[in-house]
Amino acid sequence: MSQKGDFGAVRKDIAKLLHQPEYDDGSAGPVLVRLAWHSCGTYDSETDTGGSNGAGMRYEQEGGDPANAGLQHARVFLEPVKEKHAWITYSDLWTLAGVVAIKEMGGPDIPWQGGRTDYVGETKLPPRGRLPDAAQGSDHLRFIFNRMGFSDQEIVALSGAHSLGRCHADRSGFDGPWVNNPTRFSNQYYILLLSLQWRKKKLPSGIEQFTNYDEDSETALMMLPTDMALRNDRAFLPFVELYARNKERFFADFSKVFEKLSELGIVRDADGNITNVDVEFGGYISAPKKPAEPGAPKKNTDDKVGPSEAEPLQKENSRFREKSKL
Ligand code: HEM
């Protein structure tokens, strides 16, 4: 247990858990970045609802949203950190984990401030349907991201996070990584989006994605329809080109836009304290830890998504490893 507010100690423990040889490409980093983004990406500027302040994915309505399929892995990875630093709120932990993971995977420093609180009930949960649908095009991207308050350039910069991780057929229905080294933060996503031949491919599930198969290395890479929209839209394209040729510019812009993402819906006073917390309770409200063991009693825990998220994941991971050996 660290001193309340010692985010430095939490950062160190997040960094330590990134190496996960049994999981995906050997790193928890990409799925932690996705967890951070999805915890923020429900923000609606018009109604000033959603966003990271609250950690709504602890509840079925948000955690069980099909758009969040797979993020239980990220939440379970972080449980030992919550156990050790019980004072931290889930909303701070999930956003900080994304920032730490990006840095550890070779990405930029992203300014991050704590102070978020966890919802104490379900009344403020955002409705489902606010996160992007990868099967759509540019109009949809603008609709989703303008609602959060992002410009065309910011949409393109944020999408560069797809240099990390992969799609999973059993989560989103899409399949495969965007780049050859998916645990290294880079501008490869833009370079490959522009330079490779992308062919539409119908997956067994009926879902369509874009695929490039390299005969020599026998590796397949993928792009989502929304990724291709960045290349095919006249207003998005110049920013894809900019970030493909200028890695430093991408890192600088990504850092700013990810910070903006993590602050959506948050109002701070001059000292950095968040002022729009749940007024009924006030203060830094941290939800109690969820159960660590499969089937642990619900008493004194906060696992509202299911009796335990951990057990089915263990099976899923071993299935993934079996598949990747083939
Ligand atoms: C532009 C709209 C976006 C769409 C439609 C989209 C869609 C998706 C989809 C379908 C997946 C695969 C999920 C799975 O099957 O496991 C994915 C993964 C991922 N996304 Fe996005 N995404 C978008 C924007 C973003 C943003 C803004 C970020 C972060 C800044 C991000 C970070 C990631 C990461 C790191 C992964 C890999 C997760 C893993 O390896 O488990 N995405 N995204």
From TrEMBL:
UniProtKB keywords: Heme, Iron, Metal-binding, Oxidoreductase, Peroxidase
Superkingdom in the source lineage: Eukaryota
GO molecular function: heme binding; metal ion binding; peroxidase activity
Keyword Metal-binding: yes
Gene3D superfamilies linked to this entry: 1.10.520.10, Peroxidase, domain 2 (1.10.420.10)
Annotated spans, Disordered: 286-326
Location of the Plant heme peroxidase family profile domain: 25-274
A biological process term (GO) from this entry: response to reactive oxygen species
Residue ranges with Basic and acidic residues bias: 299-326
Pfam families on file: peroxidase (PF00141)
The EC number(s) this enzyme carries: 1.11.1.-
Annotated Low complexity bias: 287-298
Alphabetized CDD domains for the sequence: ascorbate_peroxidase
Role summary: Destroys radicals which are normally produced within the cells and which are toxic to biological systems.
Protein family according to the UniProt entry: Belongs to the peroxidase family. Cytochrome c peroxidase subfamily.
This protein's name: Peroxidase
Species of the source: Calycina marina
